[in-house]
Amino acid sequence: MKILFASSEAHPMIKTGGLADVAGSLPRAIRKLRHDIRIVIPAYQSVLKQTGKYTLVAHLDLEGVKQPVRILAGRLPDSTVTVYLVDSPEHFDRAGNPYTMKQGSAWPDNAERFTAFCRAIEALALNAADLNWQPDIVHCNDWQTALVPPLLQRHHHHPVTLFTIHNLAYQGLFDWKVFKNLELPADFWSTEALEFHNQFSFIKGGLVFADWITTVSPTYAEEIQTRTYGYGLEGLIRHRSNNLTGIVNGVDYGVWNPGRDPFIAAQYNIRSLTDKLKNKRALQQHFELPVADTTPVFAVISRLVEQKGIDLILEIVPKLVMHRAQLIVLGSGDSKLETAIQSAVKTYPQHVAAHIGYDEPLSHHIEAGADIFLMPSRFEPCGLNQIYSQRYGTVPIVRHTGGLADTVTDTTPASIAAKTATGFSFTPVTAMALLGAVERALRYYQQPQVWEQLVSTGMRQDFSWRHSAQLYIDLYKKILAQRVVGAGTSR
Ligand code: ADP
Ligand code: GLC
Q: What is this structure's pTM?
């Protein structure tokens, strides 16, 4: 099959969160299963500055886009996966984050920027760029690519479309004035199409028009059909539930493997766990915390946003201190949360340390050196750090929601006996409930034998893409077959 995989970020070219990890690793896995999958992302300034080789392959004049757009082609590092860059300087050649300005607010022209991106994907999907390649399937991801299904369905011979929801909280909502300037087909503005409570909703493009919808864990696929997690889109999603599948994300153990990780102080595996201790000492030193082998080190690596329940962690800091634990935070985002973290560091310099910012090597170092990883998310479509943590022998404490529920087995007498326990989970969104899980974890931390069992069960889990990539391929085939049947009956 020929698949065009469209995303607003892909590791290692550009990353702000888990979407990039998925877009950089799922296509690689699908390529290994011998399908012709190609990635398309915007040519952000930081991507163009990298050393990778890109060649100019097409010029495109796109409806509603003032300047012509260039398509560059290159390779995903260490693979045979082609990467297309949509080079539209007025939209993407600017310093900083793909979605936000320095102060953290959205670029004012985001609707225009990602409409141009979707128009370019539409052209590639229809082979209008004369690349002598037309995909059978366009796999779109999140709102930045969600106009592609409605744009494509206006053409006679178009590829089938799959839309993956990585996070329903980000929808790409804009007002009528913005919509008018995008020069999109006028009938997009309708409640049957992309209008949502008097706003223009990019994500509805994927939800209404894609041939199939997936999300990144089976539990999240259920949750988004309810009021609590559906943001008012639950009715539409329920309506499409026969064409909705939850597929849990895989991870790239080529990037996340303590046995070969170039960013950590000492490499280790399940048979050399004492070397994990070297990472713990190095980490404590790095953050200028007291170096102490028996002090439990809790870690957080996260976008600092409401979703992640960072406020719950801040509430229990005094209790962590009372338990003589250490807490290390790596993250950036909401300035209120950043300030609150910094003030916790000031109050408890012997116990709390933080790096406010985005730092990939440091994120590996923390995974390797910490004992316990905290992820008390209010919602979590999949979540990747709880999976990385398991491979690094860092026991995760998670809220029982979305992908966290699907990838962490709570520690109970029964799961210890069955040797299936990999972490700790709790349900109410309260600091008390989080504290309950933390204190449970600390009790087991004092029992080295049980703790070692948790660590090694986690390290043995296999969340590689092999299984989930096959599920996507099966789904691509099913959508294609469905279309053939559909075409047959309509004739
Ligand atoms: P989300 O996509 O919602 O942010 P995920 O758990 O799916 O959550 O993925 C987050 C990814 O981003 C992980 O690879 C994590 O290590 C990385 N990450 C988040 N914040 C930072 C940071 N401040 N520095 C480095 N990596 C980060
Ligand atoms: C989103 C979600 C996260 C998921 C990631 C990759 O950013 O918040 O849970 O792991 O996408 O699918």
A: 0.96
